[in-house]
Amino acid sequence: MAHSNNQIGTSIKEARRRHMSGDIRFAREAYRAILDNKPEHSEALYLLGICEHQTGNHADALDLLQQAADLDPNNPKIDNNLGSVYLAMGFNQLAHDHFQRAAEALPDDGEIALNLGLTLHAIGKDDMASAEFTRACALIPNDPEVWFRKGNHCEKLTQTEDAIACYQEAVRLRADFVPALQALGSLWVALNRPDDGEECFRAILSFIPEFYPAVINLGTIAHAKGEFERALEIFQKALSLRTDDADLFFRLAAIYQELSNITDAVDNFRRGLSLDPSNFEAWFVLGEIFTSLGDADEAGRCYQKCTEIQPDSLSALWRTDLNLPVVYRSTDEIASVRDRFTKGLLNCRQKLNLSTTIGVRTATEVLEAYTNFYLPYQGYDDIDLQREYAGIIHDVSAHAFPRVAQFIANRNARKRIGFVSS
Q: Within a 10 A sphere around the Cβ of 376, how many other Cβ atoms?
């Protein structure tokens, strides 16, 4: 049954009211009912397109908004929303074209200026984007979202003071504006002002006590300050909120290490790795823990995982091939480890890349962190292996310190032997 224009107008008005109040489901059904009776109702198409965009159905939104634009080609609001859909879909240039056309029709619309700024940044025109963000702030100065977006832009351009001012203005306009508080707190921490950052994160928790990112940030600040017991308490609170975050378990493990609670450190590393089994750093640190405990088997398994994750990692390869236990269970184990160590020296030498500055620096760092101190514990003549190992050290040192190496090579005086100890 066809509806009169008055009925449709009343339906549209009520649907928009419910839409503005957040009842998208009601609004969507109402717009569809109107379109069932009048398929070419441009306003209903436009508003239904907004509903679909707001619920993430961008393809349907694009189709509906395009139909509305075909019926009402000079409507800047439709252009603005088409731009928003294209921006959400990653079609930045198309988004820019629609926002630009909307801005030309409505030059005093702050929302359109903001959207144009966002898309100009997305296509790499940051100077023009800055101008649009500034214009948006002038047009709608009491909108905290606009200041927040300008702050984001300034921060990306490393305009730190401007970013701080924008975030502070957003928070002044709306004290519980969590995105601005989170961004401002993170920026304070990055600027080595943890107390100011902590103030922001505590403000967030005063509004949303279980806001997980703020809890994590507070724990991180406490850890950085060396307040390990407080950090542990905060991270345990975070654990009561989420148990599926591998990074949280790694943070807990690091705290337990600081508190010399190795058992709980290992347990939390294992729990984290069960969620994130490809985390190279966690496997590596766990390997270092087992090495310090004298558990070469467990350490070796951890380092082997590291080489599987990053086959080109020299530090992981070094520890996998040259890892030495303190105590052996049998002569067979000594023979097996010695064979691995012997082959490992050759393998490690082959993997050295001393033709680049980065390669030399990497090799130097690996040597600084490793010692073959436990090799004599095997009870064999180690002269040949020590010569091979010394050859690696010589090659790396000669590339790391070429002037010293050249000076020594050119000396005619008798050779001297010295001992260097840390």
A: 12
- DSSP, collapsed to helix, strand or coil, labels residue 406 as helix
Count of H helices and E strands in the chain? 23, 0
Global confidence as pTM:
0.80
Distance CA 225, CA 234 (A): 14
Q: What is the pLDDT along the chain (422 residues), one digit of tens a residue?
A: 445 667 878 888 998 899 999 999 999 999 999 899 889 999 999 999 999 999 999 999 999 999 999 999 999 999 999 999 999 999 999 999 999 999 999 999 999 999 999 999 999 999 999 999 999 999 999 999 999 999 999 999 999 999 999 999 999 999 999 999 999 999 999 999 999 999 999 999 999 999 999 999 999 999 999 999 999 999 999 999 999 999 999 999 999 999 999 999 999 999 999 999 999 999 999 999 998 898 888 999 999 999 999 998 999 999 899 988 888 889 999 999 999 999 999 988 888 888 899 999 999 998 888 888 888 988 998 899 999 998 898 889 888 888 766 666 565 556 666 555 54
Instruction: Mark out the alpha helices in 276-324 (DSSP H runs).
Output: 280-292, 296-309, 314-322
* Structure letter (DSSP) for residue 158: T
**How far apart, in Å, do the first and last CA atoms of the chain sit?**
92
| 8-state DSSP, 401 | S
What is the rounded CA–CA span in Å between residue 344 and residue 372?
Answer: 12
Residue at token pair 């401002």: 184
Amino acid at 339: D
Non-local (6+) Cβ contacts of 163 within 8 A are 151, 152, 154, 155, 187
Please give the Cα distance from 401 to 181 (Å, whole number): 49
User: Between vectors from CA 81 to CA 78 and to CA 84, what angle results, nearest 5°?
Assistant: 155
